[in-house]
TrEMBL record:
It catalyses: DNA(n) + a 2'-deoxyribonucleoside 5'-triphosphate = DNA(n+1) + diphosphate. The record marks 15 as: Substrate discrimination. HAMAP family: DNApol_IV. The gene is dinB. GO terms for cellular component: cytosol. Poorly processive, error-prone DNA polymerase involved in untargeted mutagenesis. Copies undamaged DNA at stalled replication forks, which arise in vivo from mismatched or misaligned primer ends. These misaligned primers can be extended by PolIV. Exhibits no 3'-5' exonuclease (proofreading) activity. May be involved in translesional synthesis, in conjunction with the beta clamp from PolIII. This is DNA polymerase IV. GO terms for molecular function: damaged DNA binding; DNA-directed DNA polymerase activity; magnesium ion binding. Its main location: cytoplasm. Monomer. Residues 6-195 form the UmuC domain. It is found in: Cytoplasm. One of its GO terms (biological process) is SOS response. It comes from Eubacterium plexicaudatum ASF492. Binds 2 magnesium ions per subunit.
Length: 419
């Protein structure tokens, strides 16, 4: 008997599958995008458009997520590229989570298309882990029209590794006592959290498989890869003590978080994401005519660890810029330099007092002017749509939505008549 039973649910080629399922089931379009070389990508006319997701037939042309659309078209001129539709993704994600919650309330949504479930002790209800996982997978396919992989293990890391075995529409187990047979023969680059830079260093040490890594002396790894060497060594040996962390109840206050399509590895991109989150929060605060006193930033790393940090502001505010500056400061104090998966900004200590601020001798910021600027932007967006005004810094950042989190009704509607 295994102490814990953890499932990792992962949608196969999520953005692409969701788009394909929508076209087939709601628009009656053929062929199914999943059966031809196709991809979800940014606007080609802007040239900076990048591939966000690809079909399995597109993989045969070595098309990579994150590469420029122009490069992908060079590899495969007949590649069908469809625009992203975030509203559709959010709907599909929510519909899938609703199904998962019917099996357990211990659900940790890990990204827009991934979740961990703690299924410990559910055997009497749903049968053996493989039977339960198959039921979940089939129910999602039957009711929502897309496929998932389910990885089963007694540890989160191993469940996630198992979910990456053969795709699509599969259930795989990778219990601790199976790692020798199922995980150790795999190339070391397949290990979660081994990036291409680490992979090169490991190759230089003669480490080719996950098994080689598991058998390597920890000191050797530490000398070459520092702390990260120890982390991947313990992963290779199947050690991971993290638990499924069900969603915390909504904090009192105004918050917003997002899972980023790519791992963020630099502070300036992270701060752009924080700005996009803050834009939406600021707008809600001003709409409700409140100010907040507390700002908190949370980071979830690629290795499941998460951290958060908060501070009290000198004065209550609803100014986007001020909240953003505070969140950047918190971010700088908090970030350990590891790749980031998920970022959140929360605000609290809500105050309805909208009286003017006390002026300070040492602070010459014109808060009144900043407030008026925010209000003007809110009014324009109200009348002409959320995209009518955008901070200039977002113009180069096609894959970061300038107002992240909530989806205003007027946006993100793909015009299917054109496609
Ligand atoms: Mg996926």
């Amino acid at each position: 008997m295994h102490k814990q039973i953890i499932f990792h649910i992962d949608v196969n080629s999520a953005f692409l599958s969701w788009e394909a399922a929508y076209r087939v089931h709601h628009l009656g379009r053929t062929p199914d995008l999943r059966t031809i070389p196709s991809a979800v990508g940014g606007d080609i006319s802007k040239r900076r458009g990048i591939i966000l997701a690809k079909s399995i037939p597109a993989k045969k042309y070595h098309i990579q997520t994150g590469e420029p659309v122009v490069d992908a078209l060079r590899k495969c001129p007949e590649l069908i590229i469809v625009p992203p539709n975030y509203e559709l993704y959010e709907k599909n994600s929510k519909a899938m989570m609703d199904i998962l919650y019917q099996y357990t309330d211990k659900v940790e949504q890990y990204s827009i298309d991934e979740a961990f479930l703690d299924m410990t002790g559910t055997q009497m209800l749903f049968g053996s882990p493989v039977i339960a996982a198959t039921a979940i997978k089939d129910e999602i396919r039957r009711r929502l029209g897309f496929t998932v992989n389910v990885g089963i293990s007694d540890k989160k890391l191993l469940a996630k590794m198992a979910g990456d075995f053969q795709k699509p529409d599969r259930v795989h187990t990778l219990f601790f006592d199976e790692i020798k047979e199922k995980m150790w023969p795999l190339p070391v680059g397949d290990l979660f959290f081994v990036g291409s830079a680490s992979e090169k260093k490991l190759h230089a040490l003669g480490i080719r498989t996950i098994g080689d890594l598991a058998a390597t002396d920890k000191k050797t790894l530490r000398a070459v890869l520092k702390k990260h060497g120890e982390v991947i060594h313990s992963f290779a040996n199947g050690h991971d003590v993290s638990l499924v962390e069900p969603q915390a109840p909504d904090l009192k206050g105004y918050g917003n978080s997002t899972t980023i399509a790519f791992d963020v590895t630099d502070a300036s991109t992270a701060k752009m994401v924080l700005l996009s989150l803050t834009e939406t929060i600021g707008k809600r605060l001003r709409k409700d005519q409140v100010r907040i006193h507390m700002v908190s930033v949370s980071i979830r790393y690629h290795d499941f660890c998460s951290a958060s940090h908060q501070c009290m502001l000198q004065d209550a505010t609803n100014i986007t810029k001020e909240i953003h500056v505070a969140s950047c400061k918190l971010f700088d104090e908090l970030w350990n330099g590891m790749p980031i998966r998920h970022l959140g900004v929360h605000t609290g200590h809500v105050s309805k007092d909208m009286a003017n601020r006390q002026l300070s001798l040492f602070d010459h910021t014109n808060y009144e002017k900043l407030e008026k600027l925010d209000q003007a932007v809110d009014r324009i967006r109200e009348r002409f749509g959320s995209d009518s005004v955008m901070r200039a810094s977002f113009l180069d950042q096609e894959h970061i939505d300038h107002m992240n989190g909530g989806i205003p009704k007027d946006r993100r509607t793909v015009d299917y008549r054109q496609k």
